[in-house]
């Protein structure tokens, strides 16, 4: 401004004024660039401290002291994995024939191999509402409280769903089932001592016990380990129970 005021009084030439103005503009641009660099460095200082959006524990560390961290790294190169383990999600693939008995809010029991003999209670949170064609099962999500941290995230568990209210399931050993072209059946003994093959519906396969929801009543007499070729109307002789010798 001083040089411009001198120009109005013809104290300096116009060329000198233009040179001074250009020099001032160049120096001001350099100052602005340096100021922007200072602000960039101040912003980068904030990255020295990483803040998670929630409370949790670090379950994986993919970097170490002295490693070079590039800004804008490709996806999948996270530095840390933080998990909130106070409430865990459990995913179960339920076979199609059993999904009808599962509802949102249903209860289940969870067992993990690292804590034998302990049972944890879980609740069905949501269902996929679709059958996966590749597995023939539906994905079910459960939640389990883990405030004490006794369950570890990422592990495997055994889940047993509690039967829905009003559903009466009878348990039989798997050896009592007859699987053939007529589906799953059991062999019963009627009051006349003859066999009856009756189709049944399996609710749950628990390994040593198979729960049935249809086809068998509690009062029915079921043949365990029926022989091959058994048919309707075969005569059955029920052996008397062996008595223990007197002592």
TrEMBL record:
Residues 92-164 form the CusB-like beta-barrel domain. SUPFAM superfamilies: HlyD-like secretion proteins. One of its GO terms (molecular function) is efflux transmembrane transporter activity. Transmembrane segments: none annotated. It comes from the Bacteria. InterPro entries: Beta-barrel_RND_2 (IPR058792), RND_pump_MFP (IPR006143). Gene3D superfamilies: 2.40.30.170, 2.40.420.20, 2.40.50.100, Helix hairpin bin. One of its GO terms (cellular component) is efflux pump complex. Pfam families: Beta-barrel_RND_2 (PF25954). Belongs to the membrane fusion protein (MFP) (TC 8.A.1) family. NCBIfam families: RND_mfp. This is Efflux transporter, RND family, MFP subunit.
